[in-house]
Amino acid sequence: MDAVRTALQPITHNLPAPIRDLGVSIIGDKCYKALLLDIDVEDTECLKYAISKGLGIGIVGASAIVKVPQIVKLLKSKSASGVSFLAYLLETSSYLISLAYNVRNGFPFSTYGETAMVLVQNVLITVLVLHYSGKASMAGLFVAALAASAVTLFSEQTLGMKELGWLQVGAGGMSVASKIPQIAAIWSQGGTGQLSAFTVFNYLLGSLTRIFTTLQEVDDKVILYSFVAGFALNLVLALQMVYYWNAPSAKAKGKRKEALPANSSLTPSYAEVAASSTARPRSKGPTTRRRG
């Protein structure tokens, strides 16, 4: 380890100022000195904190595209099959409350930044689900209600921190409950429809990672318990995705059912072939028998 430290210290001690300042802003002076200047990997407190920061930043970055595959699937198929509107309504509402709660409490952005990213994508998905379900008029009402709620939640004059804290408790429940309609929809339809596997498995990994980052950086049991419960239900969704991986979509099943009568009328059954062959008289062929 001494050889590694001797080789790395000339580099870490001469990093450009912007990189050094960025490192200090992320993990703080104490941990920057311990991990980069002194290269002390035995400082477990700083090591866990740096890992937590790295994972948090990674989640925030990945969250910018986590719902993009779901949006693309909806746009391409022009169908909301397998995607629960109620699930997205509950999740979007809980994310809006959680975003306001984290911002107004001044928590590190790396511990909740994905909430803002996913919230924007959820709004778009919810609008698409309403549109492809034949309820386009409700989409404008949904966006207007969401905007009015945001103004109320972020305003200290309108809503106090105590009331917002109680709403956060409810948001944790809504976030967990938002998975149940989706699980039920998959179960009742016997397939995942237009639900994106990329989104489901990223949610599973993200919720597991958030348990670790919350334990390291945020001393808030309400947020911790909501991530634990969310991970449990995300695991159920992931298992459903694996179980129904090769199941045809509802749209494909409908096409298959429509095709069956047409094919059956064109293709005669074995009994029909046998009956026609016995009923048809046999023609007499030429004979070589001599008459006389």
Kindly summarize this structure in a few lines.
The protein has 292 residues and is an all-alpha fold. Helix content is 76%, strand content 0%. The chain contains 13 helices and no strands.
Question: What letter string, H or E per element, gives the SSE order?
Answer: HHHHHHHHHHHHH
Proportion of residues in extended strands: under 5%
Tell me the Rg in angstroms: 30 Å
Helix content: over 70%
- For the residues shown, what is the average pLDDT? 80
Quote the distance from N terminus to C terminus.
Answer: 119 Å
Return the structural class: mainly alpha
User: What is the approximate shape?
Assistant: globular
Number of helices: 13
Q: How is the biggest beta sheet arranged?
A: none
Give the strand tally: 0
Unreliable residue stretches:
262-267, 288-292
Describe the structure.
The chain has 292 residues and is mainly alpha-helical. It is 76% helix and 0% strand. The protein has helices spanning 2-12, 17-37, 44-63, 68-77, 85-105, 113-132, 136-154, 161-177, 179-189, 197-217, 221-243, 250-266, 270-279. Helix 3 (44-63) runs parallel beside helix 6, helix 4 packs parallel to helix 6 and helix 5 packs parallel to helix 7 (136-154). The radius of gyration is 30 Å and the shape is globular. The termini are far apart. Mean pLDDT is 80; it is low at 262-267 and 288-292. Belongs to the MPDU1 (TC 2.A.43.3) family. Residues 252-292 are annotated as: Disordered. Keywords: Membrane, Repeat, Transmembrane, Transmembrane helix, Transport. InterPro entries: MannP-dilichol_defect-1 (IPR016817), PQ-loop_rpt (IPR006603). This is Mannose-P-dolichol utilization defect 1 protein homolog.
